[in-house]
Specification:
The protein is α/β, with parallel strands linked by helices. It has helices at about 5-15, 20-25, 30-45, 60-85, 100-105, 105-115, 130-140, 205-220, 235-240, 285-305, and strands at about 50, 55, 90-95, 120-125, 145, 155-170, 195-200, 225-230, 245-250, 260-265, 275-280.
Length: about 300
Amino acid sequence: MELRHLRYFLAVAEEGQFTRAAERLAMQQPPLSQQIRLLEEEVGFDLFVRLPRGVELTAAGKAFAQHAELVLDTLQQGLAHARRIARGELGTISIGLTSSAGFHPVTTDAIRAFRAAQPDVDIELAELNAAEIIERLSADQLQAAFLRKPVDTPPDVAFEQLLNEPMVVVLPVDHPLLAGMGDTPPALPLRALEHEDFILVRRPGAPGMYADILAACRHAGFVPRIAREVPRMLTGIHMVAAGLGVTLVPASMQRYQHVSTVFCTLNDAANLTAPLHLAYPTVMRNPAAQCFVEFVAAFHARSGVDPAGGG
C-alpha cells in the first residue's frame, strides 16, 4: 500500500464521487477508479458502495478512513517538524566560550538575539578554556564557540574574527603605581610592570594570549616574572584583588568591577590585543548550528563593530 492510495481513497470519500475526486487530484477518472479497486483488493474488503450518482463509504470504509486521515496527518506533522529541523529552527546547540569571551557584549548580545529569533532551538553553554574548546569542536561535542586567540588551528575547525580589543592591566587598588591617581586610573607603560609578579591564564588553556603577553613584555625590554598560573581570567582578577600580583586582560573585562582592583590602559602596547573569534566545525552537521553561525555573522555585520578596531 502506498501513501498515494490513501490520498486517492480519502479524496473519493470526501467528494462522494469519482469524477470530482479525479478533478481534485488532477487525474483522469478511469485510472482513479482502477486504483481504488486495487486498494480494495489489497485490503480485502469493499471501501465504497457504488451508487447511481456517486459512492458512499461502507462501514469498514468509514473505519479505514479515520485511520488513513490519522496516518496522513501524522506524516504531515512529521514532515513539518523535519523541515523546521532542516531550516535550523529546531534542535540543540552546544556553545563553548572562554571566560573573557563571555564578558564581551558581542558574545552575549548575539546569543540573546538568536534566542529571540529562534526560540525553539535549545542552547547549551559551556565555559571552557581555549584548548578545551578546540578539542571539543573537533570531536563534535561543541557546535560553535567564542574564544580569544587560538594557537592550535586544526583544519576541521574554522575561525572567524569578530573584533580585536586592547589589553589592560589589572592592579590591586592600593598599588604604588596608582598613588595620587585621583578618580581616573592612569595609562601605564608596559615597562612599568617589569618588577611585578604576573598572574596569567595557564599556557595550555590559552596558549595564544600567553605567548602574546610574553612577546609584548620582551618587546618592552623585560622578561615578565610569572608568579602564578590560573585556569580562568576571573581567578586572576580575584588574585590581584588579594594582592598576589598583577594581570593583563581584554578591555571588555572592565565590566567586572571588583572593588579591590583597578583597570589601567597601556599606552605603549598597541601590538598587545585580544581578538575575539567565532569558531565552528568546517563541516556542519547540525542545521541549527549552521543557522547560528550565519546569524552571528549577520548580527555582527549589523552591529557595526570594526573587527580590526576596539572592542
